[in-house]
Every structure is written in C-alpha cells, then in structure tokens.
Write a structure and sequence with these properties.
The protein is an all-alpha fold. The chain has a domain of 62 residues. It is rod-shaped.
Length: 89
C-alpha cells in the first residue's frame, strides 16, 4: 500500500519513469505475493483441518461403540424399538 501511494504522489510531479521503476516493481511484487500468501494460508489451514478430522474419525470409528460394532447396533436397536420414537434422517 505504501509503495502504491508513493507512486501516485510521486507521479504527480512528473518524474521520468526510471525514477519510479523500483516502486512499480514493488507494487507488482506485493500484488502477486498477496495472492500467493492467501493461497498458502488456505492450503495449510485446510491441511491441518483435514488432518485433525482424520484423527477424530479414526478415534470414533475404532472405539467400542462405533457404527458397525455390536454395541452400536444394539444401542440403535433399543432406541428404535421404543414406542413413540422419533426417526431422524
């Protein structure tokens, strides 16, 4: 932001383009770097989230009351066998 503000204010004085060249390159660099850093931030946050979810899923599915185990099916059967049960889909 500072380099773009510098270019605007310095260009009002009508210097040669060579005098502004470093600031122009800085604005281009920071513009590209902003997109790259946003992408990297999202990528790493998604990787961390998916890693945590995988560990959580492993812990839940490897527990004794996990879906597919006898304890879970028995619990589900008792829940559905109650009179007036609600069925959630």
């Amino acid at each position: 932001m500072a380099s773009s503000a510098y270019i605007i204010s310095a260009a009002a004085l009508r210097p040669s383009i060579a005098d502004l060249q470093l600031a122009i390159v800085g604005v281009r660099f920071f513009g590209l770097a902003r997109g790259v850093f946003r992408y990297l931030e999202r990528y790493t946050s998604h990787q961390v989230t998916f890693r945590i979810l995988a560990q959580l899923r492993h812990r839940i599915l490897s527990s004794p009351g996990a879906p597919g185990s006898g304890a879970f099916i028995g619990l589900l059967g008792r829940r559905l066998a109650r009179p007036g049960h609600r069925r959630y889909c």
